[in-house]
Amino acid sequence: MKILVAVKRVIDHAVRVRVKPDGSGVETANVRMSMNPFDKHAVEAAVQLVEAGAATEIVVVSIGPKQSTDVILTAMAMGGHRGILIETEARVETLAVAKLLRAVVAEEAPDLVLLGKQAVDDDSNQVGQMLAGLLDWPQATFASEITVVDGGLEVTREVDYGRATVSVPLPAIVTADLRLNEPRNAALPMVMKARSKPLAVRPVAEFGVDVTPRLTIEKVSPPAERPGGKLVGSADELIAALKGELSELEAL
Ligand code: AMP
Description:
This protein is of the alpha/beta class and about 250 residues long. It contains 6 helices and 11 strands. A hairpin with a 2-residue loop joins strand 7 and strand 8 (about 150-160). The longest helix is centred in the last third of the chain and has 16 residues, at about 235-250.
């Protein structure tokens, strides 16, 4: 089985995101960036399938600026075999990302495409589903368990009412949820080794996909500041504080 894994470079999840003073977006200059957390679970799942003898090759793909090679290298340090960077400085919307991935699928002919369930920068949760639609492939989203069975996969999904297991024939699209696995931290020798793995950097124009944004961002503003919490020393103090807040609300 050949696996394609899509990884996105986003603002590190531990960074406090700041809105630019002119409201045109969020500050990314001099901000720590890293692999989208859900994508780490997708890479880990691919590596585990190789370790279990169920897959033979992992191709890692990212769409973004030159610096996105960092997240491809991280994925290759975790166990990916080679990487493709589709280089662009522009903001690429989800449908264009899905179309670019479709073009890579046409070239690489993977049996499985693994993605994160969503990118934590814009929280779209769209690319995997769009790619499945464009390719007319079966999809299993929000995967928390993947089992290889004869002719396909059994995927346990996180759903509103709990967990549901679906069977998908290959080729298929699977998007990873947080409970899927515990992503490994690549040891230094693996990080060094990743640097000698093949990484193709290709301009977005090579793929013949119109990446012109269809959405205009009018304004980005930070959420309203939340008032700080109060610490109370006892249950009695808590009741008194709640009563105080209740009478304040009643007085409104
Ligand atoms: P989204 O639909 O934007 O929330 O993203 C869902 C998943 O699609 C992510 O977790 C990634 O696996 C993949 N993805 C989104 N944008 C990119 C990108 N620019 N490059 C590579 N993969 C991406």
